[in-house]
Amino acid sequence: MNVLQRTLAVQVPCLKDSWLYRILPSVSHKPFESIDQGHVTHNWDEVGPDPNQLRWKPFEIPKPSQKKVDFVSGLHTLCGAGDIRSNNGLAVHIFLCNTSMENRCFYNSDGDFLIVPQKGKLLIYTEFGKMLVQPNEICVIQRGMRFSIDVFEETRGYILEVYGVHFELPDLGPIGANGLANPRDFLIPVAWYEDRQVPGGYTVINKYQGKLFAAKQLVSPFNVVAWHGNYTPYKYNLENFMVINSVAFDHADPSIFTVLTAKSVRPGVAIADFVIFPPRWGVADKTFRPPYYHRNCMSEFMGLIRGHYEAKQGGFLPGGGSLHSAMTPHGPDADCFEKASKAKLAPERIADGTMAFMFESSLNLAVTKWGLKTSNCLDENYYKCWEPLKSHFTPNSRKPAEFN
Ligand SMILES: [Fe+2]
């Protein structure tokens, strides 16, 4: 079912291509025709910009008794930025589905999908073979690759789409050769094919310049008997991430938690980073250990796969999300601040049973109408989690030092 091999594809900064040996070429199909867009969009001007901290309750999955929704019809664009036609930008989508794709596949002409299942596993048929991707694993399906997804229950997850650039491992700098996401832990499918006629027609759905199109053909597209190359889909289990952290005092920048990055042309500034906050030890002395309060130049979309994120005691739930935009202040809620301020700084486990993640971008993200209104999941009371914060400033509590 889940036959995979290891890949070096994510670490090789060179030309990426693959040769596919198929029973019939992909070109044997009827013309593509425009289809209903559903909630997929790249219109970043649907509603005006909003600099507020935004948080969403868990996005609701439709019940199969109400409406059968597969992975493609269950795509909802939440936010994004940039331009598809000039291959520069990103989108964050939420998928909410309850049914397998039946004689339907999808491919994206606009960019790569990094898929983060949160509820329910995905059996993904690709032209390169099959991958079973479960919550706490991620997969990347790159531009142009056709895939079809089987689901087994009401299923939810997040997608980071990047235009015109591919994900790669971050430069490790002084860390050296080993650490963070190691290349040995990325898996790719082995070739698998079906020689299957579909008399009623197999539907190939294409996202092209942000719009959806469909074409019929008479055979399954998963007719690749053999392939070779380094342009492939791949998956990664987040449990394999080797965490690096402060072991003395103070905070390291969250970039130490980067799994994959999609670089921009500006050094050190990514179109998007995929960052996780895995279970680990907290040992820093003389340090307020939760994430510090900050404002910064990045847009930070966060999601929660399972558990409880260390900086929020409640309200940030698995299957929900939050967005903190450029220079918008954010940080731990008031409960977290009080507890962490009084905590004894012994070594302690952090985030056991939890996996939070962040899609972080140097671009300014616009939120869609679905995100702000139609989803009906926006938490209007988010700002209140910081309202109880009070001053602890006591200027006379310490004698000033006479000498430095
Ligand atoms: Fe932040």
TrEMBL record:
Binding site for homogentisate: 309, 330
Catalytic activity, reaction form: homogentisate + O2 = 4-maleylacetoacetate + H(+)
Enzyme class, first EC level, given as a word: oxidoreductase
GO cellular component: cytoplasm
Residues annotated as domain Homogentisate 1,2-dioxygenase C-terminal: 240-393
Residues in Homogentisate 1,2-dioxygenase N-terminal domain copies: 16-238
Pathway: Amino-acid degradation; L-phenylalanine degradation; acetoacetate and fumarate from L-phenylalanine: step 4/6
GO BP: L-phenylalanine catabolic process; L-tyrosine catabolic process
Any matching Pfam family: HgmA_N
Signal peptide: none
Co-factor(s): Fe cation
EC number: 1.13.11.5
Residues where Fe cation binds: 294, 300, 330
Active site: 251
InterPro entries per UniProt: HgmA_C, HgmA_N, Homogentis_dOase, RmlC-like_jellyroll, RmlC_Cupin_sf
Assembly and oligomerization: Homohexamer arranged as a dimer of trimers.
Task of the protein: Catalyzes the conversion of homogentisate to maleylacetoacetate.
Protein name stated in the entry: Homogentisate 1,2-dioxygenase
Organism name: Marmota marmota marmota (Alpine marmot)
Lineage: Eukaryota, Metazoa, Chordata, Craniata, Vertebrata
